[in-house]
Design goal:
3 strands
């Protein structure tokens, strides 16, 4: 399964409307075995960035970049959820 598919599945499974990258990492780690989760977590940022560029997620910047919040857009909801 692709990292993007795992992200979408995690958003759907946990009914996320917004999340930080750290929160998403924790949800992914909870749902998979340790070895698999480690490889997926490495690809999260790149895939999140690409999803943001395609309009599937919106970024709300915080003063501290570790607290940036990603919001699920209507485009993601209608196409994938």
């Amino acid at each position: 399964m692709s990292v993007r598919k795992i992200i979408i599945d995690t958003i759907q499974r946990h009914e996320l409307s917004s999340f930080t990258l750290d929160e998403l990492r924790k949800f992914v780690a909870i749902n998979g075995d340790a070895e698999y989760s480690a490889s997926v977590v490495k690809g999260l940022y790149k895939n999140i960035w690409n999803m943001k560029k395609k309009g599937l997620l919106q970024l709300i910047k915080a003063h501290d970049s570790t607290e940036n919040v990603y919001v699920v857009t209507d485009l993601l909801k209608t196409q994938y959820l």
